[in-house]
Amino acid sequence: MANQATAVAYAALLLAGSKTPFTVENVEKLTKKAGVNVSSQLATQFVKAFEGKDIISLLSVGGGQGSAPAAQPAQAAAKPTEAPKAAEKPKDPEPEEDVDMGGLFD
């Protein structure tokens, strides 16, 4: 069942990307060519679920709201870099204390 649902989802993406109508017949044709036998009931459910919706906009990353701005590599390259600071000496590790675990690991 998971393979069938995945095949129908991919068919929906392919049909939306090629501006082909998202119909049960087109979904069944694509999945059949892909070698996945999809029940017409599953294809019908997918078509009804996405009826009247723009599949591409539903699956776009960020949804266009509240997404962070893209990094500006040209500006980052234009700034001079700071000289690396001198490496600090590592501190001597403190000796570990013996903790009595109640004979758990004896």
Describe the structure.
It is a single chain. Helices cover 43% and strands 0% of the residues. It has 106 residues and is an all-alpha fold. It has a domain at 23-60. Helix 1 (2-17) crosses helix 2 (24-33) and helix 1 crosses helix 3. The protein is elongated. One of its GO terms (biological process) is translational elongation. Residues 68-84 have a biased composition (Low complexity). Belongs to the eukaryotic ribosomal protein P1/P2 family. GO terms for molecular function: protein kinase activator activity; ribonucleoprotein complex binding; structural constituent of ribosome.
Mean pLDDT: 75
The geometry reads as elongated
Order of helices and strands: HHHHH
Weakly predicted, low-confidence segments: none
Main beta-sheet strand count, sense and barrel state: none
Helix content: 40-55%
Total beta-strand segments:
0
Q: Nearest-angstrom radius of gyration?
A: 28 Å
Broad structural category: mainly alpha
Q: What fraction strand?
A: under 5%
Distance between the termini: 52 Å
Q: How many separate helices?
A: 5
